[in-house]
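Need residues for this backbone.
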């Protein structure tokens, strides 16, 4: 049958992003596995990963200032392990105790990373256990992440085998870190009622 490739993705360029802090906008790539179909089954046939395509939207200085970036629009891909199948189904590879512990560790680290991404996107201190913070950390499904902007340190990963060097997300910049932006790009400063009242009341001082 005819095959139309016009809607296929173009081949990405090989220019790497310079290591540093960046604002990244999330696109969740559907993996067609897991309860809601958002996760992707790994080659090991047991791990389920969330595939994120993170587009650079800004740069972040070490002092927490948000600026434009020459790499705006470039994409860094990230795969986060969030579940694994530890059943003894016959069609799956056998698991040793060491395998189970390794997979469980991967899931713990993956969930920790995803929480950090949500904290970064919503401006939540990791130690904030208030009701509001807890509610923001709850997702109806992974599509809730679509379009969120978070901050992260991007590094360069050395190539292995037939693969060349690539960019990787080293760690997530959360509000408890000094380089987290104090005010997001395009954000509107929130004024208190007291500020508004101060503007409305004339300051006569000593001009009587």
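Answer:
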């Amino acid at each position: 049958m005819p095959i139309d490739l016009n809607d296929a993705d173009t081949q990405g360029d090989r220019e790497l992003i310079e290591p540093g802090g960046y604002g990244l906008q999330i696109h969740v790539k559907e993996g067609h596995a897991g309860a809601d179909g958002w996760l992707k089954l790994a080659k090991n046939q047991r791990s389920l990963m969330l595939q994120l395509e993170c587009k650079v939207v800004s740069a972040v200085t070490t002092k927490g200032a948000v600026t434009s970036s020459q790499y705006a629009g470039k994409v860094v891909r990230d795969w986060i392990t969030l579940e694994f199948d530890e059943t003894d189904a016959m069609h799956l590879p056998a698991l040793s105790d060491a395998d189970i512990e390794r997979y469980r560790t991967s899931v713990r680290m993956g969930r920790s990373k995803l929480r950090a991404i949500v904290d970064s996107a919503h401006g939540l201190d990791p130690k904030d256990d208030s009701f509001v913070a807890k509610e923001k950390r709850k997702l109806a499904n992974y599509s809730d992440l679509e379009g969120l902007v978070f901050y992260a340190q991007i590094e360069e990963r050395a190539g292995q085998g037939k693969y060349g060097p690539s960019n990787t997300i080293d760690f997530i910049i959360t509000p408890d870190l000094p380089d987290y932006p104090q005010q997001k790009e395009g954000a509107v400063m929130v004024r208190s009622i007291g500020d508004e009242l101060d503007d409305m009341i004339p300051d006569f001082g000593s001009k009587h």
